[in-house]
UniProtKB/TrEMBL annotation:
It comes from the Bacteria. Keywords: 3Fe-4S, 4Fe-4S, Cell membrane, Iron, Iron-sulfur, Membrane, Metal-binding, Oxidoreductase, Signal, Transmembrane, Transmembrane helix. It catalyses: H2 + A = AH2. [4Fe-4S] cluster 2 binds at H186, C189, C214, C220. Residues 16-161 form the NADH:ubiquinone oxidoreductase-like 20kDa subunit domain. It is found in: Cell membrane. Heterodimer of a large and a small subunit. The lineage of its organism: Bacteria, Pseudomonadati, Pseudomonadota, Alphaproteobacteria, Rhodospirillales. Residues 181-262 form the Cytochrome-c3 hydrogenase C-terminal domain. Belongs to the [NiFe]/[NiFeSe] hydrogenase small subunit family. It is an enzyme of class 1 (oxidoreductase). This is Uptake hydrogenase small subunit. Its cofactor is [3Fe-4S] cluster; [4Fe-4S] cluster.
């Protein structure tokens, strides 16, 4: 309550905007408290009221006023092909906008698998030569928050930690916050006793599916996926993909689109 709100510039590269869709559904903390009391979301070209030249002026103003103090949040990745022409916000290639805004940021957050790992735009054959943001920004601390999208409370949890402790959360070797990405989905999955007992769903809608058996044979990637879905869950802790009857497709892991079928074992 006594701290000034920290300025945040939120950029959108090649993306689908579902990371934003996830973020605005955060229940703990409520996203309205994050946006109105914790951060000052000075620029977000998707949800801000300003548009066009007015929006771009705000971006430059924010950059100058909070030089070295703002957090740069990036949703989406950067296409390098054809001189960056495949993503051209505000009349400049996104890669240039990204470099320019990163130059004066105190830290950079890579929201989602697009910014963290490339995601579908970077899947083979990657016609736009899309790259994750760490390939463009090499001289700033980057926190990766992968997932397609990431869990809302994981996103706001990362921001809350940074504002509360005035430092980055502890990161793993892939720059993901350990507090949310240090365990596999499989480690805390409520279907794990069935895995251990050798009880598997063999076909969609079989007896095992109705009994809630393990989805490993249906291609579940929970054993190789690091994320908080089986602990934090989604929609204010209501459920997650496996609880809805579908295996994890490993959406927070690098290259998950190129690793073969979502429905076969690795
Ligand atoms: Fe959309 Fe997924 Fe990319 Fe987020 S990570 S912008 S949800 S495609
Ligand atoms: Fe592991 Fe997936 Fe089976 Fe859960 S459903 S126990 S994550 S293999
Ligand atoms: Fe993604 Fe697997 Fe969670 S598909 S949403 S990491 S259960």
């Amino acid at each position: 309550e006594t701290k000034p709100r920290i300025p945040v510039i939120w950029l959108h590269g090649l993306e689908c905007t579902c990371c934003s869709e996830s973020f605005i559904r955060s229940a703990h903390p409520l996203v309205k408290d994050v946006v109105l009391s914790m951060i000052s979301l000075d620029y977000d070209d998707t949800i801000m009221a300003a548009a066009g030249y007015q929006a771009e002026e705000i971006l430059e103003e924010t950059k100058a006023r909070y030089k070295g103090r703002y957090i740069l949040a990036v949703e989406g990745n950067s296409p390098l092909g054809n001189d960056g022409m495949y993503c051209f916000p505000g009349g400049v290639p996104f890669v240039e906008k990204l470099k320019s805004m990163a130059a004066d940021a105190q830290a950079v957050i890579a929201w989602g698998s697009c910014a963290s790992n490339g995601c579908i735009q970077a899947a083979k054959p990657n016609p736009t030569q899309a790259v994750p943001i760490h390939k463009v920004i090499t001289d700033k601390p980057i926190i990766k928050v992968p997932g397609c999208p990431p869990i809302a409370e994981v996103m706001t949890g990362v921001l809350t930690y940074m504002l509360t402790f005035e430092r980055l959360p502890e990161l793993d070797s892939q720059r993901r916050p350990k507090m949310f990405y240090s365990q596999r989905i499989h480690d805390k999955c409520y279907r794990r006793p069935h895995f251990d007992a050798g009880q598997y769903v063999e076909h969609w809608d079989d007896e095992g599916a109705r009994k809630g058996y393990c989805l490993y044979k249906m291609g579940c990637k929970g054993p190789t996926t690091y994320n908080a879905c089986s602990t934090v869950r989604w929609n204010d802790g209501v459920s997650f993909p496996i609880q809805s009857g579908h295996g994890c497709i490993g959406c927070s892991e690098e290259g998950f689109w190129d690793r073969g079928s979502f429905y076969s074992r690795l």
